Amino acid sequence: MTKATECRNFVIAGHAGSGKSTLSELMLYKAGAIGRPGTVDAKNTVSDFMADEQERRASIYSTCMNCMWKNNQFFFVDTPGYGEFIGQAAAAVRAADAALVVIDAIDGPQVGTARAWKMTKERRIPRFALVNRLDKERADFKATLEVMRGNHGRSVIIPLYWPVGSGDSFNRVVNVLFDRDIPAEIADDVAECRGLWLDAIAETDDELMMRYLDGEQLGDEEVLAGLKKSIKLGHTIPVFAGSSVKDVGITELMDAIIELFPTPLSYVTVDGAKRKISEDADAIGIVFKSINDPFIGQLTFVRVVSGIFKGDSDVWNLSRPGVKERIGSMFFMNGKSQTAVHEAGPGSIFAIAKLKDTHVGDTISANQNEKALPGITFPAPVMSYAVSAQKSGDDEKIAAGLHKIIECIPTVRLGRDEQTHEVLLSGMGDQQLAIVAKRLKDQFKVEAVLSTPRVPYRETITGAGDGHYRHKKQTGGAGQFAEVSLKISYNDSGYEFSNDVVGGAIPKNFIPAVEKGINDMLERGPLVGCPVERVRVSVYDGKYHPVDSNEMAFRIAGRMAFKEAMGKASPVLLEPIMRVNIHIPDTYMGDITGDLNHKRGRILGMEVEEGMQVVQAEVPLAEMHKYATELRSMTQGRGSFDMNFVRYEPVPPNLAAEISAKHQAESAEEQ
């Protein structure tokens, strides 16, 4: 087992198409972990081994890999760059000690780059950048660098390596701080970067600062120590230069991973809690990934935080009190390839087969009394489909299959809307949900129909109304009689019922039946059959018959009296309003704001976050069902968004009339 001081754990993140998978492949090859590097186009890379990834020629899932480089073991995770699969990246970042953000030297930082910076910044782990694809004709290192500096600050983004040449002539990189043989054509650029580095390094230590200000030359060892400290504190982000296709600058990057990336012994939990991290401590780790292996079954991936996990041993799930699991076989993974191991120490990522009740985000430990680590926060879904079976009787098969699939995709959720009674499959976009449906068909041999879900409208009133109803029915034998008079008014705090009957006009034992009738109407309002809210009801009069009155009669009378009163109280239809944050490059600002106005949206403000424009708006849910697809089309895949429910607001009268007419037509067909 590799010592913790000789282990490096990091995540590779960034925008789609920046070369993350190609870089991962090259590192494995250079380290001797694979015989030859595959390519995305040839569909033979280690990372993109799932069928749907090979079909799309893009990463959809995170992939765990490991290799030995100069007596040090790398554990790293290649992550997808598309926004719909952000959950995979979020989980991988949670399990990492450092982040390598890959940036395309042609297109520069994109929305996927911004997401990676944001996630890793929130995680408070050291960040590094690789400006990749410098062998391409239109690649521009300096222009990419200036955009990055504009996003994050000149004194934060500092190149540690500088490319020599460009395009086909790009052949090597030089170390800004330690290389002495600098080509004349880049000497000025390197000198400027070196000055920024020395300023940043001097700030890490008061004594160094004084010596530096006095003009004293700092030694290489002092510079290296200050460099590591500045990176660890998050004060600076080193930038590397290279080409994963031409294998230029990647050896230098891998060497720097050993030299500059933190060891697992410096791991800090998300909540900042201090914890003894050592190989001698109790074994504790966090589950961050799960997959269904066609041969082994469920594989659970664990990042070891501290201590040593061993095969054929018991562990406790600290996130689920009382749950005890058995670790049988353990594996180090390279894509789908498995290497059996007997133990794993801090920084290691290993897979366990067939755990029964342990899920993504859980903490496992050999010590039942350890404290659980913070879990993983996933973004809320932004799109939903109503799910139904294509064949009658397949509903249970669909539910069972979906539950197994979404166990491995935490950003996809399955639930039931209690108002519309639809089963909803929710996720980060139509592509992700289409993949889930395809896997359901391929793996479980059952087909689901995905359709636009109904909007969960609500109904309320804006005025006051009086309702009266006499229910009288006489058939052979005992009849039915009940009379109810009530008033309703708007009540912002919610539903309120009061019994204001005096003189026994309605006996107290029948009042609950009247309220049940009112509750019937609250569940299915008179406008479009949606729940009624924000109403105060006062029952103030009525009549009864000593023989013919009963609970059913008063329930019916209460229902019809409420319906009459609501019709007089200026009823309105309410729709859910969502708070939406849209992340886009500045180029698309006009298109996005214009589209939001068309969707009846209200723009609340704009700000810049990680180099991207963020448009903040409130938009009716009815306008947002296809927004993931529309945004992708408007921004050529460079935009993303998140949204959350805010409140209900009245539907404009013209739209409310259309919705009501449609509801009445559907009700007539059902009858």
TrEMBL record:
Give start and end of each Tr-type G domain: 5-265
Q: Which GO terms describe its biological process?
A: ribosome disassembly
Q: What is this protein called?
A: Elongation factor G
Q: By its UniProt entry, which SUPFAM superfamilies does this protein fall under? A: EF-G C-terminal domain-like (SSF54980), P-loop containing nucleoside triphosphate hydrolases (SSF52540), Ribosomal protein S5 domain 2-like (SSF54211), Translation proteins (SSF50447)
Q: Which Gene3D superfamilies match?
A: 3.30.230.10, 3.30.70.240, Elongation Factor G (Translational Gtpase), domain 3, P-loop containing nucleotide triphosphate hydrolases, Translation factors
Organism expressing this protein natively: Victivallis vadensis
Q: Which UniProt keywords apply?
A: Elongation factor, GTP-binding, Nucleotide-binding, Protein biosynthesis
What the protein does comes down to:
Catalyzes the GTP-dependent ribosomal translocation step during translation elongation. During this step, the ribosome changes from the pre-translocational (PRE) to the post-translocational (POST) state as the newly formed A-site-bound peptidyl-tRNA and P-site-bound deacylated tRNA move to the P and E sites, respectively. Catalyzes the coordinated movement of the two tRNA molecules, the mRNA and conformational changes in the ribosome.
Q: Which GO terms describe its molecular function?
A: GTP binding; GTPase activity; translation elongation factor activity
Which superkingdom heads the taxonomic lineage of this protein's source? Bacteria
